[in-house]
Each structure stands twice: as structure tokens, then as C-alpha cells.
Amino acid sequence: MLPEVPTIAESGVPGYEASNWWGIVGPAGLPAGPVKRVSSEVSAILAVEETRKWFISQGAQAVDKGPAEFRKWIVSEIAKWSRVVSEAGLKGD
User: How far are the Cα atoms of 8, 20, 33, 41 from residue 77, in angstroms, in the given order?
Assistant: First the structure.
């Protein structure tokens, strides 16, 4: 979105990666039928050009990962940020 602005890594913090994201999740053990239905509907919405353009206008990118890939990604994010919190010595109040 701002090609003239250097990334954080280009500014001297190599390996830095953080992103803001939205997703739809449900409780553990949710039956496959509703998961498949919601996933299918969300995929259809994200495929609409107007939806993609809206996300871009907000500085975002619509990514359709599907339930299994999204779950795997969330697990990796939890691991990554848990390590950051631990290494920084942060504690919750």
C-alpha cells in the first residue's frame, strides 16, 4: 500500500513479522456440517470483487484459508506470540 515506506525489516529489525487479522471461529468440537457450510459461505463472499476491493480500501487483504489451514495458522501464531511474550518476560495482570 505504501511502496515508498520501508518495512520494519528494511528499517533495521530483521525477521520482524506481525499482522492484524480477522477470522471466524467456533467452539471446539463443532460438527463438520456447520463448519463446512460457514466456510463455503465465507469463501463465496470473499470471492466477490466488491468484497476484495473493500478489504483493500481498508489496507487489508482478504485471504481464504479454509478451516484446516486457518486452524494450523492460528496454532502457529499462538506458538510464535507465546515465545515473544516468554522471551520478553511479560506477565498478565
Answer: 19, 11, 26, 25
In the chain, where the domains are located: 32-88
pLDDT tens digits, one per residue of 4-30 = 999 888 999 988 888 888 899 999 999
Residues for the chain: how many in total?
93
pTM above 0.85, yes or no: no
How far is 34 from 48, CA to CA, in rounded Å?
22
Tell which residue, 87, 84, 93, has the closest CA to residue 18. Answer: 84
Cell digits of residue 7: 518495512
d(CA 79, CA 93): 20
